[in-house]
């Protein structure tokens, strides 16, 4: 398997010997394009940003990206990344006694000055303990020595952190942009001066918004029996601890660069936070409370960031995101400007967290220009009464109007999010959830019939269980017990049987139960957490990994009744999170709670019945003199300044006058030679168009067909075929073939080299690849055929691609293909592997003599079959001898190939020549299995590293590259002549007969 340099040291990666055995090995190796490459000793403070979930999830987190850039842009600080290892990788590390290391330099976590955890979800707590222990850091804060790193945490869950306080040294409350660097540098400077650890903790605890749990004492609240933070143990420490508040997001522009590549992330696109905070005041939503007030990014900065990010990253999808994106003050002109800039680049746009009302039709038109999939809304509750209880300012009429607008614009489906377990909820409220989805689908059917286009509308109803969170009006409410949740889910299933075509999805209530306990928990839960971790609990938010029985045992063994945290809490009681001040005035949450019990609404802040917030042009905004509503939550909002800022934003976006809605686009009636298409472009109307009607709309066009609309056409030039030779070594050898297929087009996009796309509803870049390799097998000879729409020097392009690709992706050369040049499939009939067998492992089974014996046995046998296994339990027998041509020990060519692939060490080189046919070939792993077999655990009996050294046409003892067109054309001409001769002979024989 491929060797892995560890970045700055150049030494072998500590995981090189075994990482190919785990799922998605590239999760642990780094080397992505855009990752920070800095020398370990160039900064005074080294910080590991630790995300307590797998790479695939953590790489999508926006806060992680923000801090990564801020810290690496500061010469004093260096930031690297680490994610929790999956179950298989943790087992490998423990078996070998190896530490968890960072992606950038492969340094163990214990060698950093600061390790910062992102607290996004209570059910990642056991993963934090996994990372600490594997990183070589004592689990408990009290057990850490003077030299151990500072363990900090931040994020939304940091506002109620008591169950975790036994294990973290300091917690950053609120926004982290300004405080993280200050805290980290202060810690390191004090450490270099020899200040004792406890004094260092006291110093950082005096910074605004930093909570050091070990410096505070707890007491028991008489009404609940829960532990509450009672007093500070050091003079000068704040109580309560006030959050950090970044008053202007524009001080820290959202990153337009960062690591791109590796295994596919959950949200594999460029997302940008356009605002922080929310105006709506939903009573269940903790984020809407703790991130007040609303702060918006400058729209011009947003557009510039997106355009720059697309070029730097190569992404073909972007997303605007915030807690309530539709409430961004100039969302309409912003979306128009984004789509105007990105639609020509074939970049699609996603908009998250849309409300189910209030979006103008022109906004939906703009989104539709660069988006083709469904859209998601969150009504939260099925009945109007329950929507009033939770303060969700949306009506049934608005929901159905939204459905009509969505389906009339050609969207295939919509997804609706709801919750069960809300305060005062009754059976009829629960059953109404599915009925809302059913009515939305009926609207979709009606629209489809009226427009005579599209297939069955898709409506997905997703239902989760409400967890009453701290710092919300529902923090005193009881949480539904498991039996209550199961009963409500049964009601939903009943309704679902009568709602044909509505897809109902329900969340596992067991994870919600555990989430609720830890969300409202106190310090006593730290002992339960530690016990559960040591009993094997990991990835508790993953339903297939949750060990709820183990958790129940741990609660019992610690003498703690979890139900004590889930019942109704007296409003007069002191709470385990009261020492954290998130900025809300005392009494505000209680007032909202009492309103909820009476089904009374509170108006959204910063607007009057949706007035100001939805202006799409400056003219209407200036004319609107209505007073903006203050939600009176205690957060000091300057509404006059807010209004002024929004007027400036509208003006900057050029929203000077009212925008006239464009006439509805006509359906495509007859498309002549439909060209390559990609979602996100304007439709091309080919129906005859006469003069406009008096009102400016277009006359109706007779619909001549039914069914879905054809995709929009892309205007692009004639395709030119190119072929490139490249290698993949180091981290790239561990990237799956599918991930490689995603990565390569991005390199072209970074250079703004236009790729030709296929036709159809799901256009793809026109690319062909050489045969896929197993994970961990490096290659010096990979081939890519690609269609571009420009004339370009292929060798110059190869050199440029090398500069904008991930570490280990080496572009070597390129050629332009002519129309009749054969494809890759017909340009390859042989491949050559170089294999490095560690001498020590070989000597353990008999040395080189044993190797020669096994080769003689294999080559002398008429056939040798091994089993090739696929996903879903499928398998087939492969005859290794059918493809294997030769095996040579100590061939000097093998040594050269291995050195070029960065495979170094004391090994015995082996050269394997293999035939490739249109039926396929044999893997090097199957050849090695035929030589030495497998262990009972299914592992290689003898470890090895391999590289595909050459790939192409066999030419004597040489293998000619598919870039050698003269040989390919000669072979093609000979094959064509032979085919024609055979055809002529057959015709002659037929005539004679």
UniProtKB/TrEMBL annotation:
Residues 671-714 are annotated as: Disordered. PROSITE patterns: RADICAL_SAM. Residues 671-682 have a biased composition (Basic and acidic residues). GO terms for molecular function: catalytic activity; iron-sulfur cluster binding. It comes from the Bacteria. CDD domains: Radical_SAM. It comes from Labilithrix luteola. NCBIfam families: rSAM_fuse_unch, sam_1_link_chp. This is Fe-S oxidoreductase. Residues 264-498 form the Radical SAM core domain. The lineage of its organism: Bacteria, Pseudomonadati, Myxococcota, Polyangia, Polyangiales. Gene3D superfamilies: tm_1862 like domain.
């Amino acid at each position: 398997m491929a060797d892995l340099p560890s970045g700055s040291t150049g030494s072998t990666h500590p995981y090189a010997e075994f990482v190919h055995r785990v799922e998605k090995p590239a999760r642990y190796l780094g080397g992505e394009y855009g990752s920070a490459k800095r020398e370990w000793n160039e900064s005074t403070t080294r910080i590991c940003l630790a995300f307590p979930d797998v790479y695939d999830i953590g790489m999508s987190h926006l806060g992680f990206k923000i801090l990564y850039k801020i810290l690496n842009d500061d010469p004093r600080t260096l930031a690297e990344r680490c994610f929790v290892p999956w179950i298989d990788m943790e087992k490998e590390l423990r078996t070998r006694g190896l530490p968890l290391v960072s992606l950038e330099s492969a340094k163990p976590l214990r060698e950093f000055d600061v390790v910062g955890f992102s607290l996004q979800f209570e059910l990642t707590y056991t993963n934090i303990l996994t990372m600490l222990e594997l990183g070589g850091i004592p689990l408990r804060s009290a057990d850490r020595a003077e030299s151990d790193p500072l363990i900090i945490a931040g994020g939304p869950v940091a506002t109620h952190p008591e169950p975790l306080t036994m294990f973290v040294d300091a917690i950053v409350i609120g926004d982290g942009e300004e405080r993280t660097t200050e805290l980290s540098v202060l810690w390191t400077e004090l450490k270099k001066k020899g200040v004792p650890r406890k004094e260092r903790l006291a110093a950082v605890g005096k910074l605004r918004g930093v909570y050091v749990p070990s410096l505070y004492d707890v007491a028991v609240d008489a009404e609940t029996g829960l532990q509450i933070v009672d007093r500070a143990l050091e003079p000068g420490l704040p109580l309560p601890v006030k959050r950090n508040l970044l008053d202007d997001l524009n001080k820290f522009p959202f990153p337009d660069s960062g690591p791109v590549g590796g295994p596919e992330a959950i949200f594999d696109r460029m997302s940008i936070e356009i605002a922080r905070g929310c105006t709506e005041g939903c009573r269940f939503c903790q984020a809407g409370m703790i991130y007040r007030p609303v702060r918006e990014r400058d729209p011009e900065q947003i557009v510039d960031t997106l355009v720059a990010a697309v070029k730097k990253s190569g992404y073909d999808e972007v997303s605007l995101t915030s807690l309530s994106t539709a409430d961004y003050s100039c969302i309409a002109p912003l979306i128009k400007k984004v789509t105007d800039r990105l639609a020509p680049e074939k970049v699609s746009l996603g908009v998250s967290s849309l409300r189910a009302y209030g979006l103008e039709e022109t906004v939906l038109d703009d989104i539709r220009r660069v988006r083709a999939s469904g859209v998601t809304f969150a009504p939260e509750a099925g009945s109007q009464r329950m929507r009033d209880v939770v303060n969700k300012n949306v009506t049934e009429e608005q929901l159905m109007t939204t459905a009509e607008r969505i389906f009339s614009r050609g969207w295939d489906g919509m997804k609706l999010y709801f919750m069960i377990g809300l305060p005062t909820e009754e059976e009829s409220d629960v059953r109404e959830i599915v009925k809302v989805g059913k009515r939305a689908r009926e609207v979709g059917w009606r629209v489809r019939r009226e427009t005579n286009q599209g297939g069955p509308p898709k409506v997905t109803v997703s239902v989760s269980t409400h967890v009453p969170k701290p710092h919300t009006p529902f923090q005193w409410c009881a949480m539904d017990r498991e039996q209550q949740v199961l009963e409500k889910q049964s009601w939903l299933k009943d309704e679902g049987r009568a709602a044909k075509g509505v897809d109902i999805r329900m969340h596992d209530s067991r994870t919600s139960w555990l989430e609720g306990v830890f969300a409202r928990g106190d310090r006593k839960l730290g002992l339960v957490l530690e016990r559960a971790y040591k009993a094997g609990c990991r990835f508790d938010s993953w339903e297939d990994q949750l060990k709820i029985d183990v958790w129940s045992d741990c609660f019992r063994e610690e003498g703690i009744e979890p139900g004590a945290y889930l019942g109704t809490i007296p409003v007069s009681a002191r709470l385990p999170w009261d020492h954290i001040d998130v900025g809300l005035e005392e009494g505000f949450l209680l007032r909202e709670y009492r309103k909820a019990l009476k089904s009374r609404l509170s108006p959204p802040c910063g607007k009057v019945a949706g007035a100001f917030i939805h202006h799409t042009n400056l003219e209407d905004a200036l004319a609107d003199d209505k007073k903006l509503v203050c939600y009176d939550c205690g957060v000091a909002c300057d509404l006059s300044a807010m209004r002024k800022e929004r007027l400036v934003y509208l003006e900057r976006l050029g929203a000077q006058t009212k925008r006239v809605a464009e006439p509805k686009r006509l359906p495509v009636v007859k498309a002549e030679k439909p060209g390559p298409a990609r979602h996100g472009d304007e439709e091309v109307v080919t129906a005859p168009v006469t003069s406009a009607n008096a009102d400016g709309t277009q006359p109706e066009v007779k619909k001549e067909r039914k069914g879905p609309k054809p995709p929009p056409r892309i205007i692009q030039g004639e395709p030119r075929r190119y072929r490139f030779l490249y290698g993949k070594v180091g981290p790239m050898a561990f990237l799956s073939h599918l991930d490689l297929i995603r990565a390569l087009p991005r390199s072209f996009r970074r250079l703004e080299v236009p790729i030709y796309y296929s036709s159809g509803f799901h256009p793809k870049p026109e690319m062909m690849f050489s045969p896929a390799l197993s994970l961990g097998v490096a290659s010096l000879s990979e081939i890519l055929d690609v269609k571009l729409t420009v004339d370009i020097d292929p060798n110059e392009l190869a050199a440029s691609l090398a500069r904008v690709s991930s570490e280990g992706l080496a572009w070597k050369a390129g050629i332009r293909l002519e129309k009749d040049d054969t494809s890759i499939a017909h340009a390859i009939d042989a491949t050559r592997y170089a294999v490095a067998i560690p001498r020590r492992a070989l000597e353990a089974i008999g040395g080189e003599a044993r190797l020669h014996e096994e080769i003689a046995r294999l080559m002398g046998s008429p056939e040798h079959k091994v089993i090739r296994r696929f996903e879903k339990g499928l398998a087939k027998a492969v005859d290794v001898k059918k493809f294997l041509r030769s095996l040579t020990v100590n061939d000097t060519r093998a040594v050269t190939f291995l050195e070029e692939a960065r495979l170094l060490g004391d090994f015995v080189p082996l050269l394997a020549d293999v035939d490739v046919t249109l039926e396929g070939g044999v893997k090097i792993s199957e050849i090695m299995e035929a030589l030495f077999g497998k262990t009972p655990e299914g592992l290689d009996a003898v470890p090895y590293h391999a590289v595909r050294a050459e790939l192409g046409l066999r030419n004597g003892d040489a293998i000619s590259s598919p870039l050698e067109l003269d040989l390919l054309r000669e072979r093609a001409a000979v094959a064509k002549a032979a085919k024609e001769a055979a055809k002529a002979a057959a015709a002659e024989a037929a005539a004679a007969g």
